[in-house]
Structure formats: structure tokens, C-alpha cells
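Morning F.,

Quick status update on the modeling queue. The single chain you submitted on Monday has been processed. Sequence for confirmation:
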Amino acid sequence: MLRYTLMRLGVFAGCFLVVWGLVYSGIVPRGLGGSNLLWVALLALVVSAPLSFVLLRKERDRASEKVVAKVDNVKASLERNRTQEDGADDATRTAQ
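C-alpha cells below.
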């Protein structure tokens, strides 16, 4: 998941630099007053989101599979613990 996050930040940083260059060259309009940096960041976010969706699809799927596997392991562990507790409870009730 860390790798996917770093790759996503890299795509955003690349888009930020490209948008910054376009704004300062005058191709894309500047923000109002002192909001230019916010304007560039917002444009970079809008551009990087669909790019990340397309370019990082395989990495996102790989990260998703790892998360699902970890959740399944935790669920299985909780189920094992619950059945052990139920077994111990049943044994105690039978002994009485």
C-alpha cells in the first residue's frame, strides 16, 4: 500500500510541475490574487486523479488483494478464537 501511495504522490507531483509550468507560461490562466499556488494544486489534483486511475490500475489491484488477504486472515483468526471460547464454555457447562 505504501508503494501505491508513493506512486500516486509521484503522479501528483509530476502533474503539479506541468500545471505550474503551464500557468507561469500563460497557457493556463492564473488564480486570483494570492491564490495562485492553491489554483495550481487544485488543477494538478484534477488532472492527476484520472491519470492515477488509469496508470496505476495494476498496482492498485495488487494492493487491494493484499488488503483483502489481511482482512480475511484477521476474520479467520477471530473465528478461531470465538470457536475456542465456545468450546471451552460448552466443556465447562457439561462438566457442571
